[in-house]
Amino acid sequence: xxxxxxxxxxxxxxxxxxxxxxxxxxxxxxxxxxxxxxxxxxxxxxxxxxxxxxxxxxxxxxxxxxxxxxxxxxxxxxxxxxxxxxxxxxxxxxxxxxxxxxxxxxxxxxxxxxxxxxxxxxxxxxxxxxxxxxxxxxxxxxxxxxxxxxxxxxxxxxxxxxxxxxxxxxxxxxxxxxxxxxxxxxxxxxxxxxxxxxxxxxxxxxxxxxxxxxxxxxxxxxxxxxxxxxxxxxxxxxxxxxxxxxxxxxxxxxxxxxxxxxxxxxxxxxxxxxxxxxxxxxxxxxxxxxxxxxxxxxxxxxxxxxxxxxxxxxxx
Length: 316
Known about the structure:
With about 325 residues, this protein is an alpha/beta fold. It has helices spanning about 10-20, 35-40, 55-60, 80-85, 100-115, 120-125, 150-160, 180-185, 190-200, 220, 240-250, 290-310, and strands at about 5, 25, 45-50, 70, 90-95, 145, 165-170, 185-190, 200-205, 230, 255-260, 280.
């Protein structure tokens, strides 16, 4: 029996730290071996996962002794939270640990997207000089709209303000009189349609829920400015990928920078293939060397603390 099973990559020092007191099994390939994960963690009081391990259905049912889930990140859509609540399983996301990493990624995406610099690489190496094609926009004075205005959006707002961008946000969960609007210099937008129509850049910062799934569909994309950039570092599924590809091909919007997908990893031949002015990265906005240290630290502390409060001691 293992006290803690870790199914996705984590800093080795974090595993070593836990192994001082607990019997730990670390295998980053377990994410693609759900049956093996279920067997290994059948009697474990704790598991640690990232975003790909599906803690639900038969896998969760097999973990009869599970009491604690440490999440190396913040999204919880890969975990059956209702079943965890029913069974009294505590779930601990690493809230705030990768905020800086994602905020910096969004700022980088804004600057790269507005200048369209990535496409110049092959031309320059081939001896071409496409300067006229790259006389594009600055961040200065552009309106950046946040869909969702939690911690990561607010950290991004601080950095965007330094670029002298105009800031706006839509978040029905943040009250109209919340002091955060004024604190971060952000104009509160009443409707999503208004945000879409008035922003030069839109950055998504909401969880994937039944309400947010396909939030950016063909209808909403059609309401965006033809020059606007759409950035998604939140969760795949918030944007209808087929509708996004169609909008880019039709020139309905100016471009998109996407880090998360409805199904990960993105498969060859996806709806996004062949779309112009589309920049893709493999769910790495929150993954930096520094961010990983913070995420690992928070997760180790969360799991240790939860097991201690439950009176669960290591079996070593």
